[in-house]
Amino acid sequence: ALVESSKRAAAFQAVADHLLPSYTRIGVGSGSTVVYVVEAIAALGPSVTDSMTFYPTGAQSEALIEAANLRLQYINKLAPADQLDVAFDGADEVDADLNLIKGGGACLWQEKVVATAARNFVCVADFRKLSDRLGKAWKKGIPIEVLPIAAPRVLGELRAMGARDPQIRSGLPGKAGALVTDNGMWIIDAPFAPLRLPSDEGEAAEGEWTVDALADRLIKIPGVAEIGLFSGKNGLEVASGAQKPVAAYF
Ligand code: DER
């Protein structure tokens, strides 16, 4: 109850602070916290939301938008230079620099495309997600979306990089065998030692990475489609001029 009420409070505050009535294009992330974001948006009523269009990040997000009777559209309908005004999404962990681990809900690939298509990206996360280093609170590993046939080779690369027992995410209890994403891919969860912040002193130990160095390395592994590390270096600032998440709500 405490966690759910904190998710809901964070979501309503984030919408109050960052959904301006003048906005027309809004990205909607995935997971359980974003359910409250959509509830808060719908609560604004048709006088506000009728002029808005909502862009999903996967099947769950699409269903949320439809269930709330909000106007649904897909980002392939945008012109290449078009941007969303804001995208709201959850996270599995948020560090002091607002770098995120995302992908607990296996929706990270489309989430990152939508997040980087937005001028503003607002992360909504309950207090459990706040951490001074990524990997301290979220211990299941960095979610990585991979081409299924390449998964064994990616696992080998991850072990060589110091990942601790990386695993292909199972579909159980819903599905025997590997979980399959909205994009027909698999997810590998790769636990690393807590990630260093640029401000950390001293040499990195074996298998210890900074967010940016790890992100730059992971994305290059053949067979990796996208990674569940959101930081300024892999897209949020470069692709669309969007800054790091403008705010994280706990
Ligand atoms: O998959 C994701 O990145 C989601 O945003 C998700 O991990 C956040 O999940 P939660 O809001 O259910 O904690």
TrEMBL record:
The enzyme's E.C. designation: 5.3.1.6
UniProtKB keywords: Isomerase
Pathway(s) per entry: Carbohydrate degradation; pentose phosphate pathway; D-ribose 5-phosphate from D-ribulose 5-phosphate (non-oxidative stage): step 1/1
Naturally occurring in which organism (per UniProt): Echria macrotheca
GO terms for MF: ribose-5-phosphate isomerase activity
Catalyzed reaction equations: aldehydo-D-ribose 5-phosphate = D-ribulose 5-phosphate
UniProt keyword Isomerase, yes or no: yes
GO cellular component: cytoplasm
Protein name: Ribose-5-phosphate isomerase
Family: Belongs to the ribose 5-phosphate isomerase family.
